[in-house]
Recover the amino acids of this structure.
């Protein structure tokens, strides 16, 4: 299965997409990144012919991605368009926008792998946790899978995919690493309250990687 991941621009390493890419590649899928600021994702999609196009969307950029996706769908009417990230997570009604086939709510590694496996196997897109789907009969919203407590199970983020497309990030002497997910605090102004509610937990608890896992990732980037 070919999966094209699209991002508007690279301000720093889009680690969410890079982790998803690593999970998909480990399962045998082909993954490619298109950066709209430096190339035309429509042309990339037309030439590469992916089965799935995925977008990670922050609130404020949703109209850009919606309109870009409609242009891609004009060239590839049968492509499955899926949206994840903060905006679909907190505003799942984004699924009702034209051209949006599915939205991922919450963390996406396992959810995206399950989706790609279903599409590759020709199975109906229904009943996959974390996903909302648009069907002819209406909208389907599925349960949210538990948060992954053991972050060490995640493969290293697919920085090779990013560096192949973005020379500035590749050559930059500054690299970014995330060693944990969640937060031990409950600041009133933060999104963590809303995220914890989505997952049905009291708080978005802190989950940390082993020190050895972090050193492995930093060493891998340094060596390359």
């Amino acid at each position: 299965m070919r999966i094209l991941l699209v991002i508007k621009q690279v301000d720093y390493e889009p680690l969410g997409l890079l982790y998803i890419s690593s999970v998909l590649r480990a399962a045998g899928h082909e993954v490619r990144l298109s950066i709209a600021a430096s190339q035309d994702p429509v042309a990339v999609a037309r030439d590469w012919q992916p089965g799935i196009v995925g977008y990670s969307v922050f609130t404020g950029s949703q109209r850009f991605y919606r309109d870009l996706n409609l242009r891609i769908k004009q060239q590839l009417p049968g492509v499955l368009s899926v949206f994840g990230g903060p905006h679909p997570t907190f505003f799942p009604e984004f699924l009702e926008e034209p051209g949006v086939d599915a939205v991922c709510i919450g963390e996406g590694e396992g959810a995206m792998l399950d989706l790609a496996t279903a599409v590759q196997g020709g199975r109906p897109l229904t009943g996959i946790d974390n996903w909302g789907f648009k069907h002819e009969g209406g909208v389907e919203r599925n349960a949210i899978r538990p948060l992954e407590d053991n972050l060490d199970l995640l493969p290293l983020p697919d920085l090779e995919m990013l560096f192949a497309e973005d020379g500035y990030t590749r050559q930059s002497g500054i690299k970014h690493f995330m060693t944990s997910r969640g937060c031990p605090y409950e600041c009133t102004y933060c999104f963590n309250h809303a995220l914890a509610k989505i997952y049905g937990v009291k708080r978005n608890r802190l989950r940390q990687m082993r020190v050895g896992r972090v050193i492995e990732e930093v060493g891998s980037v340094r060596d390359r």
Q: What stands out?
A: The domain at 2-141 is CATH 3.40.50.280 (Rossmann fold). The longest strand covers residues 2-7. The mean pLDDT is 95.
